[in-house]
Amino acid sequence: MAAAAPVTAGEDERRRRLGAALEGPQPQEGANVEAESGELSRLRAELAGALAEMETMKAVAEVSESTKAEAVAAVQRQCQEEVASLQAILKDSISSYEAQISALKQERQQQQQDCEEKERELGRLKQLLSRAHPLDSLEKQMEKAHEDSEKLREIILPMEQEIEELKAKLLRAEELIQEIQRRPQHAPSLHGSTELLPLSRDPSPPLEPLEELSGDGGPAAEAFAHNCDDSASISSFSLGGGAGSSASLPRSRQGLSPEQEETASLVSTGTLVPEGIYLPPPGYQLVPDTQWEQLQMEGRQLQKDLESISRERDELQEGLRRSNEDCAKQMQVLLAQVQNSEQLLQTLQGTLSQAQERVQLQMAELVTTHKCLHNEVKRLNEENRGLRAEQLPSSAPQGLQQEQGEEESLPSSVLELQQLLRHTQQEAQAQLQAQEHGAERLRIEIVTLREALEEETAARASLEGQLRVQREETEVLEGPAPRPLRTEGEGAAAAGRAGD
């Protein structure tokens, strides 16, 4: 208490001196006030310039932030456009593939139906051909029979002439026989019979055996024609003179001798018609002309049908071959298109994976930037709190030190006192300005960091939404392939949330 009393007394004395010094020179103080006002105006001008510079720096910072936001938005738009283009390309390719696959399935079904129809048509043609083979053989047989009949006609014409000659000879022989029968002498009758036997036997050569008639073509046909000539000659003989001879022989035998009866029996034996030797050879059949013409017409019609069926078969085979070639060409073209589409799909998948990698890298960069900004905000907040805490306790010691310094260095004159006052005012203004600048800078940094943090949070949220949508679309399009990308995106999002 004793120490405090002198101090307070000294302070009162110093204050009285200071008041007296201030009250002393009034005009000089007015000049000093004017000078201080000029200095204050100058300081205000400097403060205005500093504020303008600060505003300029704020504008530059805002422009840089806006450019950064625009760059991030441009990157996001580019990623969205790339993803949208990839999705559109994938949808178009999938729709085109589905359309091509459906067209191929329809074409394949149509080709299968055409092949089945052609197979059925070929089966029907084969059946018709199998049925047409006997007709072909019958036609050949008919042609062969026609040729044989032509040959027989060539043989029969001279034989008919011989038959006419034989008829004339037989008539003459009958006349001779009747003359011999009328004559009662024996010698002439024997002579006439010996003349008659060569006449009756020479024109008709011996008959061919039946075994030779069973052969093919020429010899059998000639033998058959020869026997037919013999049968015709004998039948004409029997028809021409049989009535008279059969009527005359019984009457003449009543008055004939044994030699005459023997001659008559030989003549009657020569005139008998042999039985069972006029059968056609095997494989031949005697038909009338109308049936022969009808068979020929049927054969020609069957030949035409066979030719038309063969032409249809050739046309069907040609059409089948052309359709197979067209189908093979179309299959090659479609295979080439499928290969190109697969290559395009692989390229799109590579581009999509690269875009996903870029998005993941950007997400990682944004996460790291967010962490850095978060740490910087924390640090600035701590510095701000520390500065605020330091300003309050440091003001009291500084005041005590200043009072002690003032006590120690009190001015002895008015000029020194004015200088001290001016110096203290300048220091106070400078300190105040420094504090204001520091506080303003801290506020600006805090606001800027908060805005950047909000922008980064919004960008991260939008990127996470885009990545989620892209992941879902890729899962729908590609199945379980992009699972590692989803886990990486989830890890990046988890790291960002842990940083928050």
Automatic annotation (TrEMBL):
Protein purpose: Plays a role in membrane trafficking and in homotypic early endosome fusion. Participates in arteriogenesis by regulating vascular endothelial growth factor receptor 2/VEGFR2 cell surface expression and endosomal trafficking. By interacting with SDCCAG8, localizes to centrosomes and plays a critical role in ciliogenesis.
Molecular functions (GO terms): growth factor activity; GTPase activator activity
Stored Gene3D superfamilies: 1.20.5.340
| Protein's name according to its UniProt entry | Rab GTPase-binding effector protein 2
Which InterPro entries does the protein's record reference? Answer: Rabaptin, Rabaptin_CC, Rabaptin_Rab5-bd_dom
Location, primary (coarse class): cytoplasm
Species of origin:
Sapajus apella
- As recorded in UniProt, coiled-coil segments are 292-390
Which key words are in the record?
Cell projection, Cilium biogenesis/degradation, Coiled coil, Cytoplasm, Cytoskeleton, Endocytosis, Endosome, Phosphoprotein, Protein transport, Transport
Instruction: Tell me where in this chain the Rabaptin GTPase-Rab5 binding domain is found.
Output: 294-472
Asked whether the UniProt record includes Acyltransferase among its keywords, one would answer no
Example of a GO biological process term: endocytosis
| Compositional bias annotation for Low complexity | 490-500
Q: Subcellular location, in the record's words?
A: Cytoplasm, Cytoskeleton, Cilium basal body; Cytoplasm, Cytoskeleton, Microtubule organizing center, Centrosome; Early endosome
List all Polar residues biased stretches. 249-267
Q: Where is this region: Disordered?
A: 1-38, 181-267, 390-412, 471-500
Q: Which PANTHER family match?
A: RAB GTPASE-BINDING EFFECTOR PROTEIN, RAB GTPASE-BINDING EFFECTOR PROTEIN 2
* Transmembrane regions listed in the UniProt entry: none
